[in-house]
User: Which sequence fits this backbone?
C-alpha cells in the first residue's frame, strides 16, 4: 500500500481565526503528528495564493492527503476539493477541520481555543488517512422545470425559461395567475401601474406553448433528485404526474392580521383598515370611509406587525415606500386632506426611493416618529367636539412630546409573513425554514437562490419579504442557473452513496426496510442486498442499521468516523483542569 | 479546580451542523469542551460511534439532528431517536449514567439554542463528574 503523506494547512482567516487561535503554534505542533509531511499556516487559505500553496506542495512533496483547518466545510469544502483536483489528486482525499465557526468565533479563552483547534485537527488527520478516491457520477438533466407559485416571481422565472424554448410546468394554488400584484394599483417609486405590468406578462404566459399552467393545483409529493424529479399534482381532485429536472419555489407571502394588536383595535373600528384594503380602495378609484364620505384626516401607521418582538422581529421592507406612495396618491385624490405618518424609522433604500421620500416630504405630509419597540401609538374613539372619528395618541420621539392626531381613516401598514403552508411545502420539496418561517437559501451571500437540496431554488417573498424588482431579479437568477444546467445536459450527482459488500451481507434485508428512498433492493438469487446508486442520497441510515457491517457509506465509513473520534480524544490533547 | 469534561457531539449536516455554524457566524459564546463531528444525517450515527467516544475518554456525548418532520432525508432523525432510546438503556446497564448521552433537535436557524445547549450539557456532565469507562477498560486490558 502506498505511504500516506498528509499536507496540513492552518488558516488565519485574517484575524478571524488568528485572534483566538495561535495558528502558528498549531501548525508547528501538529507537524509531528503521524504521516504529516508538511504543516503550514497562511493568512487566507481560500485565496488563490492559498490554494496555489496546496497545489504546489502536493506536487513537490508528493502529498496524497490534504487537511485544511479553516472555516466551515459548508463554505469552502468544494473550493479545496477543486484545488486538489487541479493538482491531480482525487478531490475526496481531503478533510476540513472547522476552527472558525466551531472554535475561534465561539470561545473567549485563547489557550483553550488553541487546544480545541488541535483536537479538531487531530480528528481530521486521523480521518483523512482512511479516505478513498471516489469517482464522479453524472446523470442526464431533464430539461423541464416545475415552478410553484404564479405571482410576479413565478411568472418572471417561467417566461425566462420558456423564452429559451424549455418546458415549464407552472403551478398555482388559486384560480388565477398574478399573485398579490393583481390587487395593487400603482407601484413605488415611479408610479407605474401594476396591472399594466402584470397583464401582458400573464397574456404571454397563457400563449406560450412551452408553459403548461395548472390553476387550483397543489403538489402532493416529490421524489427523485436534481435533474430527475417527479411529482404528483392534484388539480380539482384529478391527479397527474409530472417529470422535470429543476424546481423553483415562488410561493410568496401573506399579509399580517393586525387583530392581535390591541391598541389599534382593528376589529372594532370600521375605518381602521389594512394596507391591503386601502390598496383595493385605490384600485377602485375612490378613497371613502365606511360611511361613504371622503376622509379629511388620514393617518398611516407603519411597521404593523414588523420589527417588534411581540409579532415579527424582521423588517417587511416594502411598507415604508408603499406608505409614501399612498401619501402621493391621497394628495392627488384629496388635495385638502391632512396626511399623517406614525413611523418608526423611514427605510428608503433602493433605486428612486430616497427621492420619493424627499418628494413626499414636500407635499405637506406630517411625519411623527414613535418608539416601535416599547411604545406603540394608540387609536381611540374621538368625542363630538373633536370633529373627527378617531384620535391617535402617540409619544413623538424626536420632539419628546405627547401628541394627539385627528383621524377619519387609519391605514395600518401590515407586515409580510410567510404563507401558512410554507412548512408543509418546505418538507415536501426539502427546503428548511428560518426562524421567521421563510425558506432558507443555500448561502445568504454567496448562493442566495439555491437551497441545500440540489435542483431546488427559492425566489421572491417566500425567501424573505421583497419588493417587485428584487423578486424579479431573484426569479431570473434562478432561471439562469437552471438554463445553464439544462444547457450542459448532465448534472453531477452524489457519489457518497452506500455500497454492499456481498461477502459480508447475510441477506437479512434490514437495510431494505430503513432506506427512505427505496434505493436498496434484494437480489434473491445471490441472497444479498443491492444499492441503486442513482436513487441513493448518501444519508447512511442503512450503514447504521446493517448488523454485519456489510454496508459501507462512502466518505462516511465506520473506519473514517471511528478514527476521527480517536483523534479528537487523543490523550495528549486533553483539556486541563483549571 | 473544576472538572473540565470532554464532550463529543455528532451533528447532522443539514440542520444541526448548520445551526452550530450559525452560532459561530453570530459570534455567540459557549463552553469549549464540545468537539463536533459532522455526519450527513443523524440516522448515520451508529451505536458503535457513541460507545467508541466513551471508550476513548468522552465524558458526555451529544447527538443533534433535524426537528421531527424536517429531516433532509425524510426520516433519518426518527431512526436516530429509536437507536438513542435503546442506547441510553444499554449504557445504563453498563453502569453508566444514561444522561451522559443526549439527543436534541437543532434546526439550521437555531444557533442560539445550540450555544445554550452546549453550555447546559457541559454543565450537566460537569456535575456528573468524569466518566470512568476509559480508565476501567485500560485496567482490564
Assistant:
Amino acid at each position: 500500500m502506498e505511504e500516506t503523506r498528509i499536507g496540513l494547512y492552518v488558516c488565519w482567516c485574517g484575524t478571524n481565526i488568528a485572534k483566538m487561535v495561535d495558528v502558528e503554534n498549531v501548525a508547528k505542533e501538529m507537524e509531528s503528528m503521524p504521516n504529516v509531511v508538511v504543516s503550514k499556516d497562511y493568512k487566507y487559505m481560500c485565496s488563490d495564493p492559498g490554494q496555489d500553496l496546496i497545489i504546489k506542495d502536493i506536487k513537490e512533496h508528493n502529498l496524497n492527503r490534504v487537511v485544511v483547518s479553516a472555516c466551515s466545510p459548508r463554505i469552502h469544502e468544494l473550493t479545496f476539493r477543486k484545488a486538489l483536483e487541479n493538482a491531480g489528486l482525487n478531490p475526496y482525499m481531503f478533510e476540513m477541520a472547522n476552527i472558525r465557526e466551531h472554535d475561534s468565533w465561539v470561545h473567549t479563552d485563547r489557550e483553550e481555543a488553541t487546544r480545541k483547534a488541535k483536537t479538531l485537527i487531530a480528528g481530521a488527520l486521523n480521518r483523512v488517512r482512511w479516505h478513498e478516491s471516489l469517482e464522479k457520477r453524472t446523470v442526464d438533466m431533464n430539461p423541464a422545470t416545475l415552478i410553484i407559485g404564479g405571482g410576479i416571481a413565478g411568472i418572471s422565472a417561467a417566461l425566462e425559461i420558456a423564452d429559451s424554448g424549455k418546458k415549464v410546468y407552472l403551478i398555482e394554488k388559486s384560480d388565477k395567475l398574478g399573485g398579490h400584484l393583481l390587487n395593487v394599483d400603482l407601484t413605488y417609486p415611479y408610479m407605474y401601474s401594476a396591472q399594466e405590468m402584470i397583464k401582458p406578462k400573464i397574456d404571454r404566459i397563457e400563449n406560450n406553448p412551452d408553459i403548461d399552467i395548472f390553476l387550483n393545483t397543489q403538489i402532493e409529493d416529490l421524489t427523485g433528485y436534481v435533474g430527475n424529479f417527479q411529482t404528483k399534482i392534484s388539480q380539482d381532485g384529478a391527479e397527474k404526474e409530472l417529470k422535470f429536472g429543476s424546481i423553483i419555489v415562488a410561493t410568496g407571502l401573506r399579509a399580517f392580521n393586525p387583530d392581535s394588536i390591541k391598541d389599534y383595535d382593528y376589529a372594532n373600528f370600521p375605518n381602521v383598515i389594512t394596507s391591503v384594503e386601502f390598496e383595493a380602495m385605490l384600485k377602485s378609484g375612490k378613497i371613502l370611509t365606511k360611511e361613504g364620505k371622503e376622509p379629511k384626516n388620514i393617518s398611516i401607521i407603519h411597521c404593523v406587525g414588523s420589527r417588534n418582538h411581540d409579532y415579527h422581529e424582521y423588517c417587511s421592507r416594502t411598507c415604508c415606500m408603499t406608505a409614501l406612495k399612498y401619501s402621493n396618491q391621497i394628495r392627488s385624490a384629496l388635495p385638502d386632506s391632512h396626511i399623517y405618518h406614525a413611523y418608526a424609522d423611514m427605510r428608503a433604500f433602493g433605486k428612486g426611493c430616497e427621492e420619493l421620500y424627499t418628494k413626499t416630504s414636500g407635499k405637506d405630509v406630517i411625519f411623527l416618529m414613535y418608539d416601535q419597540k416599547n411604545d406603540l401609538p394608540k387609536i381611540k374613539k374621538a368625542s363630538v367636539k373633536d370633529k373627527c372619528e378617531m384620535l391617535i395618541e402617540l409619544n413623538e420621539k424626536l420632539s419628546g412630546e405627547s401628541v394627539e392626531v385627528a383621524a377619519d381613516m387609519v391605514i395600518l401598514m401590515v407586515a409580510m409573513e410567510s404563507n401558512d403552508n410554507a412548512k408543509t411545502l418546505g418538507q415536501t420539496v426539502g427546503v428548511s425554514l428560518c426562524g421567521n418561517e421563510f425558506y432558507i437559501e443555500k448561502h445568504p451571500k454567496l448562493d442566495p437562490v439555491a437551497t441545500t437540496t440540489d435542483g431546488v431554488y427559492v425566489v421572491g417573498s417566500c425567501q424573505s419579504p421583497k419588493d417587485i424588482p428584487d423578486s424579479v431579479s431573484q426569479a431570473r437568477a434562478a432561471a439562469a442557473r437552471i438554463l445553464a444546467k439544462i444547457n450542459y445536459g448532465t448534472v453531477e450527482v452524489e457519489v457518497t452513496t452506500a455500497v454492499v459488500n456481498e461477502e459480508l451481507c447475510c441477506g437479512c434485508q434490514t437495510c431494505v426496510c430503513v432506506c427512505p428512498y427505496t434505493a436498496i433492493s434484494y437480489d434473491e438469487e445471490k441472497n444479498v442486498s443491492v444499492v441503486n446508486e442513482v436513487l441513493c442520497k448518501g444519508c447512511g441510515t442503512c450503514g447504521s442499521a446493517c448488523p454485519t457491517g456489510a454496508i459501507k457509506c462512502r466518505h462516511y465509513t465506520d473506519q473514517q468516523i471511528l478514527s476521527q473520534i480517536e483523534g479528537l480524544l487523543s490523550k495528549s490533547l486533553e483539556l486541563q483542569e483549571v | 479546580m473544576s472538572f473540565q469534561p470532554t464532550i463529543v457531539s455528532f451533528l447532522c449536516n443539514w440542520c444541526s451542523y448548520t445551526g452550530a455554524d450559525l452560532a459561530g457566524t453570530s459570534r455567540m459564546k459557549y463552553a469549549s469542551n464540545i468537539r463536533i463531528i459532522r455526519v450527513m444525517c443523524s440516522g448515520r450515527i451508529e451505536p458503535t460511534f457513541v460507545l467508541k467516544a466513551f471508550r476513548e475518554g468522552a465524558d458526555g456525548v451529544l447527538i443533534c439532528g433535524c426537528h421531527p418532520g424536517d429531516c433532509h432525508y425524510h426520516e433519518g432523525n426518527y431512526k436516530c431517536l429509536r437507536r438513542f432510546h435503546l442506547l441510553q438503556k444499554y449504557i445504563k446497564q453498563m453502569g453508566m449514567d444514561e444522561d451522559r448521552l443526549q439527543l436534541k433537535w437543532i434546526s439550521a436557524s437555531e444557533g442560539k439554542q445550540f450555544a445554550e445547549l452546549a453550555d447546559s450539557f457541559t454543565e450537566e456532565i460537569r456535575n456528573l463528574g468524569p466518566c470512568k469507562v476509559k480508565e476501567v477498560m485500560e485496567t482490564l486490558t
Q: What stands out?
A: DSSP finds five helices and four strands in chain B. Chain B has a mean pLDDT of 95.
